Amino acid sequence: xxxxxxxxxxxxxxxxxxxxxxxxxxxxxxxxxxxxxxxxxxxxxxxxxxxxxxxxxxxxxxxxxxxxxxxxxxxxxxxxxxxxxxxxxxxxxxxxxxxxxxxxxxxxxxxxxxxxxxxxxxxxxxxxxxxxxxxxxxxxxxxxxxxxxxxxxxxxxxxxxxxxxxxxxxxxxxxxxxxxxxxxxxxxxxxxxxxxxxxxxxxxxxxxxxxxxxxxxxxxx
Amino acid sequence: xxxxxxxxxxxxxxxxxxxxxxxxxxxxxxxxxxxxxxxxxxxxxxxxxxxxxxxxxxxxxxxxxxxxxxxxxxxxxxxxxxxxxxxxxxxxxxxxxxxxxxxxxxxxxxxxxxxxxxxxxxxxxxxxxxxxxxxxxxxxxxxxxxxxxxxxxxxxxxxxxxxxxxxxxxxxxxxxxxxxxxxxxxxxxxxxxxxxxxxxxxxxxxxxxxxxxxxxxxxxx
DNA sequence: CCACAGGAGGACACTCAGTTCCCTTCAGCA
DNA sequence: TGCTGAAGGGAACTGAGTGTCCTCCTGTGG
Lengths: 221, 221
Known about the structure:
The first copy, chain A, is an all-alpha fold. Chain A contains 10 helices and 1 strand.
């Protein structure tokens, strides 16, 4: 029944447009009552995103049952792969929907609220894990937004190519950029218990300048 | 007239809630015709955000007339301060609206679409400036999202404090985190032609270890 | 002072999304 | 056979948003 409504809706949306199609048209084509439509979809927009509620629940569960030892950013990056998989499982449907949402402002707004719920799930998870750090909630919000933006960037370029390219590889690449940005570079800290780490840049200077800099750096604290 | 409609709308929204207030109620209180409401505000939601259209135009203009020599990320950070200023100029109004949007899902969705347009303006500007780099659009999207998230984080904590704290300082702090994340660390390059920069971390080590590390660091290249 | 054009606002009716209430149907069961 | 509860259908209603036409007000030229 749900599937019949989705199929009828997309058939009409594609041939005459979203706003030119009324709910009555959809239920007439599907051969069901108007009231039944709103039993399955709380609004006309929901029929365009029939699987997001399930995907959001799945992703939330994935984040919820992550062990304490996991790297939180890594976990969120893995979670966003679940979302991408939902798109790539039905390439033609995803591409059709993309063309639709690109045209209709109302659908774009609805999609934003969906994306926002994913982002909120990321941020909530990171908030819990980064609670100890000084700017925990700030970092959580910013990293969540960056991960979502990387996902959207990879997804949209895949959708623009009509589902031809390798979306998963594009997402990995984009997430790599985000992770590189948000993992503090001067703290290897776990590969080997090093007592001292020295970073020297700009080597075209005489040795005495290096020593001078070291002395001032050591003297500051 | 616009102001009268906004005032009447907020009076009713605050005393009986957004969804319990019809457009007819608003125009009755303001003493104008129903049709006039929709002349000034294309939808009922727009009356809640009466100044965003102007602010968006102002911000877009600010981004448009930026010289080529400016640091693009810095420019976007300056642009987002314009948005924050719009909020802090009317603290009580902003706080009232915040309480409203927090409760009403429809208003939250509308606010998301507004925020998205700001973010799009950031991303478009960065896309133009970062077009040369290999992952230009990806970096533009991610940085734009991070800047917007930092702004929202600072704004929301200010709104939660009923407009008491220093929003501007909070934003500066948040933007500092974003800039630190997205500016490649080993390239100061413009503050002063320094010949050598030394970073020493983990100082609880004997001096000979420090020297040893320096020697190996210098020997590597 | 009068005629007139144009824009701002108002009155009314209409479409359509979403809701409420109630009806029918049918399966399972005592 | 009668009962019950879930699934669906259907009519009527509310309210947002739109289109159309009318009125009023204002400024301008004769």
